[in-house]
Automatic annotation (TrEMBL), chain A:
Main location group: membrane
Locations listed in the record: Cell membrane
InterPro entries: BPD_transp_1_N, MetI-like, MetI-like_sf
Name of the featured protein: ABC transporter permease
Keywords annotated in UniProt: Cell membrane, Membrane, Transmembrane, Transmembrane helix, Transport
Top-level taxon: Bacteria
Gene3D superfamilies, sorted: MetI-like (1.10.3720.10)
Membrane topology: Multi-pass membrane protein
From TrEMBL, chain B:
Ranges annotated as biased composition (Low complexity): 1-17
Name listed for the protein in its UniProt record: ABC transporter permease
Sequence similarity: Belongs to the binding-protein-dependent transport system permease family.
Coarse class of the protein's main subcellular location: membrane
Organism: Agromyces neolithicus
InterPro entries listed in its UniProt record: BP-dependent_transpt_permease, MetI-like, MetI-like_sf, OppC_N
SUPFAM superfamilies: MetI-like (SSF161098)
Residue stretches spanning the membrane: 32-52, 98-119, 131-151, 157-179, 223-249, 269-290
Ranges of residues in domain ABC transmembrane type-1: 92-290
Lineage top rank: taxon: Bacteria
From TrEMBL, chain C:
Transmembrane segments annotated in the record for this chain: none
CDD domains assigned to the protein according to its UniProt record, in alphabetical order: ABC_NikE_OppD_transporters
Organism expressing this protein natively: Agromyces neolithicus
Principal location listed in the UniProt entry: membrane
Protein name as catalogued: ABC transporter ATP-binding protein
C-alpha cells in the first residue's frame, strides 16, 4: 500500500518535472533574436510568404496558446523541422548513436576505474597512497576535459597511430578504438566524484559485521566481493551517479566537440550558434528528459540494491 | 555543478587526532602556500599584462604566422601571427574576471537566499529549498549552452567584454544553491541556541543575529566554496568559449585560443598545450587554497 | 584430559597491527569434541579477540602476532592449521549483533544457503538445506521466510537465522561471540535453549564467549576466566562457580546477583580493568586485588594446576586457600 503510494508520488513528481522541462525548453524559442519564419525563408523572401509561414508555425498566436500547441505537437512526436527542412526527429535519430556510445564508454571507464581506485584506497586507508590519491582525485576535477582530450590526441593517438584522430569508427573494432580516448578524457572528470564516494562506502562495508560473517563461512573472492561487498557499497554511488547525469551529459557534449564526433552535442552546438531554434529545442528537451529519467532510474536502482529503502 | 568541497571528508591522520602536527605547521599549510603562490602569480600577471608582454593581444604579424617559440615570441605565434604569450597573459584578465564574478556573485546571492530561507516562514523556506532541488537536477549547462548560443554573446557591459555578462548570469543561476543551503543550516542552528532565542524574544534585531552570530561561523565554509567555485567557473568559462558559445572566438581567452588552434595540433601543439596548462594550473591553485582552508576548518 | 582435543590453541598473542599494543597475551586452551568451553571476562579482557583469532577474523589494525592453532583432522590427529582455512570448514561462528551481522541486501534463503554454496553445493541442494536449517532453528513458517529480507525480522529471529547460517557449513566446532548479549531476557533464554539443543543433537563442540557468568554457568562444561589479555583461571564450570581460586574469579562469583548477573559493574572490586597497553607489571589484577602483596607487582604468576583439572594464576593461591579454611 505504502509502496503503491510512493510510486504514485513519483509519477506525480515526474509529470510536474517534465512539464517544467517543456516550459523551459519552450522559453528557449522565445529568446532567440529575430523572426523564426524570416530566418527560415531568408532575407529575400516576400513579406506575404513570411507571414504565411508565421501562421503555419503558429507564431502569430498568444504565448499560452503556442505553449499548448507545442505540448500537443510533442505528444504526437512532432519536434518540428530544422532551418533547412529536415525533421528534428531525424537529426536526433542520426546523432543519438554516437552520443550513446560516448556516454556508455565514459560510464564504463569511470565506474571500472572508480571501483579499482576506491578498492586500493580502502585497503590502504589513511596511508600515503590514500592521502596522495585524495589530492590527485580532487585536482583532476579541475582539468578541462577538452584539453585532456587534445593532449590524448596529440601525445597518444598521433604518435602510436592506434586510435583515430577524431571521429567515430563504423566496424565494431574501429568503433571501440575510436571510443578509447574520449572515454578516458570523460572519465577523468567523472571518476574522482565516484571514487571518493565509493571509497568511503567500501570502508563502511568492509568493516561491517556481515562481511565478517560471510568470511567466517568461508565465502571469499568474487562471491564475497559481488554478493556481500559491492552490492551494499553501490547504493550511494548509484544515487551519486544519477545526480551527476547532467554533468555527465555536458561532458559528452564537450567530448563530441573535442573529438569531432557528430552526435547530439555537436548538433546542439551547431544549431544554437546558427539560430536553428527547433533543433536546439528538440535536443535540449531530449537531454533534459534523459536527466529526469536517469534520476528516476537511479532511485529505483538504489531501492532495488537496498531493500530497506523500498518499504520505508 | 558538482559540489567538490562538501564531498571531501578529510581522513583523520595521526597529526589531526593528536592535535600536534608532525611538521609543527597547521594542516593544509603546504596546500595553502602552493595554491596561493600559483594564484598570486596569475593575478600579478593579469594586472601587469601590458608590461610583461608585447602589449597588444590583437596585433597581427601576418608575415610571421605559426612561428615556433623564439626570443621575440616566447610561445610562438598563432595562425594570424599574434603573439601567443601576450594573448595568454591577457587571457588571465578575462578568465579571472569572469571566474571571480561568476563565483562571488552567486555566493552573495546564495547567502542572502539562505538567510531569507532560514528566517522565513515554512512556505518561503520549503519553496526555496524545493526550487534548489530542481536546479541541482536540471541539465543547466546544456540549457545554458543552448540559450547563450541562441542569444549570441551580445555587447560588452560596463567593464565586461562581449559574452561575459550572460556567462556570469548563468553561473549566478546555477551555483547559489550550495551557499543558500549552508547559510540556511547555519541560521537555523544559531536561532535554536538558547541565548539567541532569548535575545530574539527580547527584541534583538535580526540584523544583529546575522552579523553577530550567523556570518562569523558560516563565513569560513563559504570561503572554501568560493575558492573552489572560482576554479570550476574558470574551467567552465574556457569550456564554453572552446565550444564557441558565449565569449567570441577572437577574444584572448584560453578556451577560445585552444579552439582556434585545434587545426594545428600536429605541428604547433604548444598553441593548445599552453592555454590548457594555464587553465589547469590556475584552477588547481584555487582548488588547493580551497582544500587547504578546508583542512584548517576541519582541524579547529 | 582423556579425550583427544578437537581444537588446541597455544601461546596465542594478538596485538595492534603496528605491534605496539598487546591485546591478548600468551593464551592457551583446548576444546574436546562435543565440549562447550566458556570464555568469560569483562569487555577489553581479550576474550572476543581470542575467539576471533581462531578464524583470523580481526578488525582492521589488529593481528595475531604469535601462537599455534591446531585442529583435529578426520582421524583425530591434531595438525597445524591456517585459521583462514578453517573458515566454513569445520568451524563457524555466531556473531553478537543480530542487527548488523546479516547482509541487508540478501534474502534470508540466500543468506543461509551462501555458506553451503561457497562449499560447492548446487543451488537446489543449498536451497533445500536452507529450508531444513530454518526449520531446525525454529523459524516459524520457514517457506515464507526464505524470501524475506533481514530487516523484516525481529532480533531474536535474526539470531536464529545467524545460527542457521553457522550450521549451514556443518561445523564440528561452533564459535559463539556473545550471541545473546544484544537480546532481551526472554529471547536470550530461547536462544540459549536453542544452542543447547543443537549442541546435544549435533554433537557440536562450542567455544562460548560472554561477559555474563550466569550465561556461562548455564551453557559451558568448562570455563576459562580472562583478565587483561590472559586466562587467570580455568576449571569445570561447576568448580569455577562453587570453588573459585583466583581472587578475580571470586569477585566475579560474589558479584553475581540472582537477577541481573551481568558484569557491567563489579561492586566487590574497586577500580576498573586496565586498558590494553596500560597493563601493570606483575599480576595485572594486583592493583584491584584486596589480597595483593608487594610480590604480586613484581612478576606475573603463571597459570598452574591447583587441583585436579583446575588451574589458576595467583601467587598467593596456597595462602589464600589456608586463609579461607
Amino acid at each position: 500500500m505504502i509502496y503503491i503510494r510512493s510510486i504514485a508520488n513519483r509519477v506525480g513528481q515526474l509529470i510536474v518535472v517534465l512539464l517544467a522541462v517543456t516550459l523551459a525548453v519552450f522559453v528557449l524559442t522565445q529568446v532567440a533574436p529575430g523572426d523564426a519564419a524570416r530566418l527560415r525563408l531568408g532575407p529575400r523572401a516576400s513579406e506575404e510568404s513570411v507571414e504565411a509561414l508565421r501562421q503555419e508555425l503558429g507564431l502569430d498566436r498568444s504565448l499560452p496558446e503556442q505553449y499548448l500547441e507545442y505540448l500537443g505537437r510533442l505528444l504526437r512526436g512532432d519536434l518540428g523541422t530544422s532551418v533547412n527542412g529536415r525533421p528534428v526527429t531525424e537529426i536526433i535519430a542520426q546523432g543519438i548513436g554516437p552520443t550513446f556510445w560516448l556516454l556508455a564508454g565514459t560510464l564504463v571507464v569511470s565506474v571500472v576505474s572508480a571501483i579499482g581506485i576506491a578498492w586500493v584506497a580502502a585497503m590502504k586507508r589513511d596511508g600515503g597512497f590514500d592521502h596522495g590519491l585524495r589530492l590527485v582525485l580532487l585536482l583532476s576535477l579541475f582539468l578541462p576535459t577538452f584539453w585532456v582530450g587534445f593532449l590524448l590526441l596529440r601525445f597518444i593517438a598521433i604518435p602510436t597511430g592506434w586510435f583515430p584522430v577524431g571521429g567515430l569508427g563504423d566496424s565494431p573494432g574501429e568503433l571501440f578504438a575510436s571510443l578509447v580516448l574520449p572515454s578516458i578524457a570523460g572519465a577523468i572528470a567523472l571518476t574522482p566524484i565516484l571514487a571518493r564516494s565509493l571509497r568511503s562506502s567500501l570502508i563502511d562495508v568492509l568493516d561491517s559485521e556481515y562481511v565478517a560473517v560471510a568470511r567466517s563461512l568461508g565465502i571469499r573472492g568474487r562471491t564475497l566481493f559481488v554478493d556481500h561487498v559491492i552490492r551494499n557499497a553501490a547504493g550511494p554511488v548509484v544515487t551519486l551517479l544519477a545526480l551527476n547525469t547532467a554533468y555527465l551529459f555536458f561532458g559528452v557534449v564537450i567530448l563530441e566537440w573535442t573529438f569531432d564526433i557528430g552526435g547530439l552535442g555537436s548538433a546542439l552546438i551547431t544549431a544554437s550558434t546558427t539560430q536553428d531554434v527547433y533543433v536546439v529545442q528538440g535536443i535540449t528537451l531530449l537531454f533534459a528528459v534523459g536527466v529526469v529519467v536517469a534520476n528516476l532510474a537511479g532511485e529505483l536502482l538504489s531501492d532495488a540494491l537496498d531493500p530497506r529503502g523500498a518499504q520505508s | 555543478m558538482i559540489d567538490v568541497s562538501t564531498a571531501s571528508p578529510a581522513p583523520a591522520t595521526a597529526a589531526a587526532t593528536d592535535g600536534v602536527p608532525r611538521s609543527g605547521l597547521k594542516r593544509g599549510t603546504g596546500k595553502l602556500i602552493v595554491g596561493s603562490t600559483i594564484v598570486t602569480v596569475f593575478v600579478l600577471a593579469a594586472l601587469f599584462a601590458p608590461w610583461i608582454t608585447l602589449g597588444d593581444p590583437q596585433a597581427q604579424d601576418l608575415a610571421n604566422r605559426l612561428a615556433a617559440p623564439s626570443a621575440q615570441h616566447w610561445l610562438g605565434t598563432d595562425s594570424l601571427g599574434r603573439d601567443v604569450w601576450t594573448r595568454l597573459v591577457f587571457a588571465a584578465q578575462v578568465d579571472l574576471r569572469v571566474g571571480i564574478l561568476g563565483a562571488v556573485i552567486p555566493a552573495i546571492l546564495g547567502t542572502l537566499i539562505g538567510i531569507a530561507a532560514g528566517f522565513g516562514n515554512r512556505v518561503v523556506d520549503s519553496s526555496i529549498m524545493r526550487f534548489s532541488d530542481v536546479i541541482v537536477a536540471f541539465p543547466l549547462f546544456i540549457f545554458f549552452l543552448a540559450l547563450v548560443g541562441l542569444v549570441g554573446p551580445g555587447e560588452g557591459f560596463w567593464f565586461l567584454g562581449p559574452g561575459e555578462l550572460p556567462i556570469i548570469i548563468g553561473f549566478a543561476l546555477i551555483s547559489w544553491v550550495v551557499y543558500a543551503r549552508l547559510m540556511r543550516t547555519e541560521v537555523r542552528r544559531v536561532r535554536s541556541l538558547d541565548y539567541v532565542r532569548a535575545a530574539e524574544t527580547g527584541g534583538l534585531p535580526r540584523r544583529r543575529v546575522i552579523v553577530g552570530h550567523v556570518l562569523p561561523n558560516a563565513m569560513n565554509q563559504t570561503f572554501v566554496y568560493v575558492f573552489v567555485d572560482i576554479g570550476l567557473a574558470i574551467v567552465a568559462v574556457s569550456t564554453l568559449a572552446f565550444l564557441g558559445v558565449g565569449i567570441p572566438l577572437d577574444t584572448p581567452e584560453w578556451g577560445a585560443m585552444i579552439s582556434s588552434a585545434r587545426g594545428y595540433i600536429n605541428t604547433n601543439w604548444w598553441l593548445i598545450v599552453a592555454p590548457g596548462a594555464a587553465i589547469a594550473t590556475l584552477a588547481v591553485g584555487l582548488a588547493l587554497i580551497g582544500d587547504g582552508l578546508d583542512d584548517r576548518l576541519k582541524q579547529s | 584430559m582423556t579425550t583427544q582435543p578437537l581444537l588446541e590453541v597455544s601461546h596465542l598473542t594478538v596485538a595492534t597491527a603496528d605491534g605496539a599494543v598487546p591485546l591478548v597475551d600468551d593464551v592457551s586452551f583446548s576444546v574436546a569434541p562435543g565440549e562447550c568451553l566458556g570464555l568469560v571476562g569483562e569487555s577489553g579482557s581479550g576474550k572476543s579477540l581470542t575467539l576471533r583469532s581462531i578464524l583470523d577474523l580481526f578488525p582492521t589494525a589488529v593481528q595475531r602476532t604469535g601462537g599455534r592453532i591446531r585442529m583435529a583432522d578426520d582421524s583425530g590427529v591434531l595438525t597445524d592449521r591456517d585459521p583462514r582455512g578453517l573458515r566454513g570448514n569445520g568451524v563457524s561462528m555466531v556473531f553478537q549483533e543480530p542487527m548488523s551481522s546479516l547482509n541487508p541486501s540478501m534474502r534470508i534463503g540466500d543468506l543461509v544457503a551462501a555458506g553451503a554454496r561457497a562449499r560447492g553445493l548446487s543451488k537446489r541442494d543449498a536451497a533445500r538445506l536452507a529450508l531444513g536449517l530454518l526449520t531446525e532453528v525454529g523459524i516459524p513458517e520457514p517457506e515464507q521466510r526464505l524470501r524475506a529480507w533481514p530487516h523484516q525480522l525481529s532480533g531474536g529471529q535474526r539470531q536464529r537465522v545467524m545460527i542457521a547460517m553457522a550450521l549451514s557449513v556443518e561445523p564440528r566446532l561452533l564459535l559463539c561471540d556473545e550471541p545473546t548479549t544484544a537480546l532481551d531476557a526472554t529471547i536470550q533464554d530461547q536462544i540459549l535453549g536453542l544452542l543447547e539443543r543443537l549442541r546435544r543433537e549435533r554433537g557440536l563442540a562450542v567455544v562460548f564467549v560472554s561477559h555474563d557468568l550466569g550465561v556461562i554457568a548455564r551453557i559451558a562444561d568448562r570455563t576459562a576466566v580472562m583478565y587483561a589479555g590472559t586466562i587467570v583461571e580455568e576449571a569445570a564450570t561447576d568448580t569455577v562457580i562453587a570453588h573459585p581460586r583466583h581472587p578475580y574469579t571470586r569477585a566475579l562469583v560474589e558479584s553475581m546477583p540472582a537477577t541481573d548477573r551481568r558484569l557491567d559493574r563489579l561492586p566487590t572490586i574497586p577500580g576498573a580493568p586496565p586498558a590494553a597497553g596500560m597493563w601493570p607489571e606483575g599480576c595485572r589484577f594486583a592493583p584491584r586485588c584486596r589480597f595483593a602483596v608487594e610480590a604480586c607487582t613484581v612478576s606475573r604468576p603463571p597459570l598452574v594446576g591447583v587441583a585436579d583439572d583446575h588451574a589458576s594464576a595467583c601467587l598467593r593461591d596456597r595462602e589464600l586457600v589456608e586463609i579461607a579454611s
